[in-house]
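Re: beginner question about structure tokens

> Can someone show what the tokenized structure looks like for a real chain? I only ever see the sequence side.

Sure, here's an example I had lying around. Input first:
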Amino acid sequence: MKKIALCTLVAILFAISCAEEDLNKLNPNQLVPETFYKNEAELQEGVNSIYASLQSTQLYSREMWFLHDLRSDDNVSGGGQLETPRNQLLIGTHDPANPVMGNVWSGLYRVILRANIVINNAPNAEDISSDVRDRIVGEALFARGFAYYQLGTLWGGVPIFTEFATAFDDTKPRSTQEETMAQAISDLQAAASSLPEKSATDPGRFTRGAANGMLGRAHLFLGDYTAAKTALQNVVNSGEYSLVDEYDDNFQEENEYNTESVMEIGYADIGQFNWNPTGDNLGNEGSVRSQEYSAIGWRNLIPSPSLIEEHESPANGDEKRDPRLDKNFYFTGDPFAAGASTLTAEAQRGNSVMVNGEEQKISWRKYSIMYKLDPGGYRITGINHRVLRYAEVLINLAEAELESGNRGTAVDLLNQVRARPSVDMPAYPTANYPVSTDEEVMRAIIHEKRVEHCSEQIRNIDIIRWRKEGKLDKEPLDYFVAGKYELLPIPQGEIDNNPNISDGDQNPGY
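And the corresponding structure tokens:
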């Protein structure tokens, strides 16, 4: 009897063991990292999924530019239609549960995950040339470095992954901001050494110029002006880039991937839109930027009075009205829809602003589809998002040259941007911007960059580093409190789900 019972027990244990082995087997027909990424076509699909993440509403179709713009002084609320989580970021009442911030965090880590899968699997792929393999890995390295740059500048130290996680035990603790930025720089340097220059037949892919341009940004953030100068000068010396004559060409659908574009996220108006945040579903090829900011649209954010007044004009004592004032903004009475319509105050929902003592309704023109049509009540567009332009490379290089003791070279670089035919502003020095001292040149750099790149998701990080370096004449953000608002809070979801991070790891003030 005992023998029968023992045999029965052994049989049961064997059956359980076999069942567990069966459960652990991979389905050979299922697309998972262990069974995919085995050849050139599959690696290419993997790297394409990284671009899809960047296109998503969590990142450049929506939340990325909201997060940056809400944390700079370029915008104010367009009215009561601005959702509460966005208004919290605008006025500084956000907390770790803010969903706009949390979406960007998740989107950046999705980019890192997908980049790691490509980087980790590429060495074992077959039927692929070394040149193609290097280019694919370079694109993934660029994306990962770009994501860590964003995370490091916005949140400080974050968990660093260079292998793709497959289990909850793979979570990482917070690294320091220095370690996070070092990872970004390492990835971008590796990308710069393996990526090709611009391709006329395959536009939109990450390039050596984009990697060097982002390296310049990262080194500026860390105050390493020598390294920044080298990276930015590499972009200039490549001969691949130049300023376009017409400033508007940088924000319109017909002039995408032009000579000024260094990094660009591609979109297409396919007649439908999917609000899925990951960018994987049909319809995520479009952007809601025009709808969110346009005069005829939701008008959630509008230009701040200080930004309007930053543009040189006879009203503030300068010799000439900066043409970028009218190229960046719509004023009541302006023509739009290729001249077929005139903008009225009633057509612009929401708030007015007080500029030079006059209450006005002013709206964003940059990235608005209104230059060629009346969008009506709701319009998704295919206007590409320019992440990095050659104009910024020149202005960043001017700052690096100034910090290297080359004041005259810095001024010459600024004047290249002002000399664009459609801008044609008087060269520095001007009435309001003398450039006889380093402090005066820095003031001109800050001015020129704000006017040239307003609401292009650049000023937020510039404010962070210029504040730290004592380069700002005054604090731009009314709500700013030192020791808190330099960084965003680590999202509550990360603290709740990552066993290696606790409430004690939260950024100060939150």
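Each token stands for a local structural state, so reading them left to right follows the chain. The chain has a mean pLDDT of 92.
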